[in-house]
UniProtKB/TrEMBL annotation:
Entries under InterPro entries matching the protein: DegV (IPR003797), DegV_C (IPR043168), DegV_domain_contain (IPR050270)
UniProt protein name: DegV family protein
Keywords recorded for this protein, A-Z: Lipid-binding
Keyword Nucleus included in the entry's annotation: no
Example GO molecular function: lipid binding
PANTHER family: DEGV DOMAIN-CONTAINING PROTEIN DR_1986-RELATED (PTHR33434), FATTY ACID-BINDING PROTEIN TM_1468 (PTHR33434:SF2)
Gene3D superfamilies to which the protein is assigned, alphabetical: 3.30.1180.10, 3.40.50.10170
Amino acid sequence: MIKIVADTTSCLTLEEVQKRGIYYVPQIIVIGEETYRDDTEMNAIEFLQRQRTSPILPKTAAPPPALYTPIFQEITEQGNSALVLAPSTQVSGTYRGASVAAQDFPNTDIRIIDTQLIAGGLGQLVLAAQEWTERGLSMDEILQRVEAMRKRHRVYFVVDTLDYLYKGGRIGTAKHLIGSLLQMKPILTLQDGHVASFESQRTQKRAIARLKEIVLSECPPGPQSRLNIMHGDALELAQSLAQELGPALNIPVEQIPIYDLTPAILVHSGPGVIAISYFTN
């Protein structure tokens, strides 16, 4: 049997992955000398409170190999194989931690994939892979489907401020200075696994309106697009977008997941971020 291994950058809840039998690994949040797991020790709301008030810039650390070792040990003892769907190596060291741990289990079939995704799109890929294992597909068949699905992914973010991207080293000084002076609201995307600028708008209202335009022009109608919405302390806006996009794209609103972005992502995006991802045909 194939066991799926994911981590918290997929934005899936601990309850959901436990219910589905998916193994789950946390990211590590570092605030000064203190460290926290972001699955059981610090959630998004608690993190944002610390982020807003702490004089120390929070940082992240990828899960170390020691967190993967007991998972691989259990899978080995069960006589199963493992498929680790890791976030993009461009934004996380998760892939490396899993790879190092896998070296201690040379006789177990452990596949570790750099999905080049993160957040809700990664979560939907994880859920799809779990569905394929339940249907009895082989490892090679699942890997082929993962690769094909990964290439169809689209995601767009609107951040409330450029400050956190700048402090986290995701944008340069010039772009941060110009963007801040002009009070630009950037729309970001993922390109080849790294965060990239798509375009900018002069106000939050315009950025959100443009975000909806992009989604409506690209996202295929119907639930098969796996449209999902993510946010950082912007639940009301996320719910409003679901109410608008659902009918327009022939997707029942209750079938549009709304995810809290995890602390490991909020470190760089900051509060107020809104994101939408989906898969094209």
